[in-house]
Amino acid sequence: MFLKVIPKKLLNIIGIIVAVVVIGTVGFKIIGGSEKSVLDALYMTAITITTIGYGDVIGLDNKPLGKIFTIIYVFLGAGTIAYLFTTLAAYIIEGELRRVFRRRKMDKRIAKMKDHYIVCGIGMVGLYVVHEMYLTKRPFIAIDNDDTKLDVFKANNINADLVVGDATENEILWKAMIEHAQGLFATTDSDNDNIVISLTARQLNPSLRIVSRCNDTKNIDKLRRAGADSVVALNFIGGLRMASEMIRPHVTSFLDMMLRDKYSPMRVEEVHIPADSPFIGKPVKEIDFKTIGNIMLISARKPSGEWVYNPYPDTIVEKEMSLIIIATPQEKELLVEHVSGGADSEL
Predict the structure, then answer these.
(1) How do residues 73-99 score in pLDDT, each as one tens digit?
(2) Minimal CA–CA distance to 23: which of 85, 88, 61, 80?
(3) pLDDT of 176 over the 50 cut
(4) 226/299 same-domain check
(5) Residue 292's domain is classified under what CATH number?
(6) Which of 239, 257, 292 is the last residue of a domain?
(7) Contact at 8 Å (CB) between 32 and 40?
(8) How many percent of the chain have pLDDT more than 90?
(9) Within a domain: 347
(10) Which of 88, 170, 289, 301 has the smallest set of CB atoms within 10 Å of its CB?
């Protein structure tokens, strides 16, 4: 497992260095005979390849073959080690340079972000949020104290930008362009941090939608008063899920399959009907979902807050209504354009 995180080029360099040391140790042990220990041979190898030359501990005065081996080993061994260490240093420096350039490009992309989401805290919960944002093609920025989270993203095939710092600080949230964001996830493993993040984010962007993680249900009210629009209590949600697995297993299996399909990721999506939609005042059947894709309308929320479950085809579309559908992210975007009076609204 440890070797998997070491780059192949670095493993090759380490392997060659070990091989050179082993060859030298074995050679000098044979030359020194039984009178010399492996430690003596290793010591002779070290002072030879590093060209320190503290002294001949093996005794080569009457051993011409030993002198020949030493001459060859000095040129090949010391030269190889010097080259490998130079290559290793260049690899480290180049890696740092690449990291600097990558950070600069990332900062430029972040500075241009608008209508995006911010994920604060990339633990296991935050990583699942990031994965869902990436899979459904939502623009987002992650915030975490650990810059190695970029490697975690890469390992999970997620191309994401990361702001390194403490999400409870104003400056870090400003770097994540919070003034232009439309949503924020507080997903750290500390309820106190999530409270501070929610409070700070609400002050910096009053129109922001905030969804916070909660570990202790006693803190739900505190998080709401701090500014969170929605609070997700992991223990509560986990308990409901376990109960559902027991009493309605096929429903949970269906939802899991729908969410985990990599080739056609179906989601329960929300589409807002804008005030200037050409479908306002018309039956919902005139939207004709099937011309866009395999979209299923399962509910509608009226501006008054009233819910209409499994709407009839003659249900009238109202201004500021929200349609709850099952669709792929691509189909959802097409539907948004369609109900907004886009180019395909006449389909």
Answers:
(1) 778 877 777 777 777 777 666 666 566
(2) 80
(3) yes
(4) no
(5) 3.30.70.1450
(6) 239
(7) yes
(8) 46
(9) no
(10) 170
10 Å Cβ neighbour count for 218? 10
Q: Does residue 244 lie in a domain region? A: no
Alpha-carbon torsion angle 281, 285, 287, 288, nearest 10? -170
Q: Are 59 and 129 members of one domain? A: no
CATH code for the domain of 157: 3.40.50.720
Distance of CA 170 to CAs 41, 115, 173, 198, 312, Å? 60, 19, 5, 11, 48
Q: Two tokens at 95?
A: 């890696």
pLDDT band at residue 297 using 50, 70 and 90 as cut-offs: very high
pTM over 0.70: no
Tokens of 278: 């050409």
Assess whether pLDDT exceeds 70 at residue 264.
no
Domain shared by 102 and 140, yes or no: no
Phi and psi angles of residue 186, each rounded to the nearest 5 degrees, phi first: -100, 100
> What percent of the chain stands above pLDDT 70?
88
Residue 17: its pLDDT value, please? 80
Q: What CATH number is attached to the domain comprising 51? A: 1.10.287.70
Mean pLDDT rounded to a whole number for the chain: 86
One domain for residues 103 and 128: no
* The three-state (H, E, C) secondary structure of the chain, written as one string: CCHHHCCHHHHHHHHHHHHHHHHHHHHHHHHHHHHCCHHHHHHHHHHHHCCCCCCCCCCCCCCHHHHHHHHHHHHHHHHHHHHHHHHHHHHHHHHHHHHHHHHHHHHHHHHCCCCCEEEECCCHHHHHHHHHHHHCCCCEEEEECCCCHHHHHHHCCCCCEEEECCCCCHHHHHHCCHHHCCEEEECCCCHHHHHHHHHHHHHHCCCCEEEEEECCHHHHHHHHHHCCCEEEEHHHHHHHHHHHHHHCHHHHHHHHHHHHCCCCCCEEEEEECCCCCCCCCCEHHHHCHHHCCCCEEEEEECCCCCEEECCCCCCECCCCCEEEEEECHHHHHHHHHHHCCCCCCCC
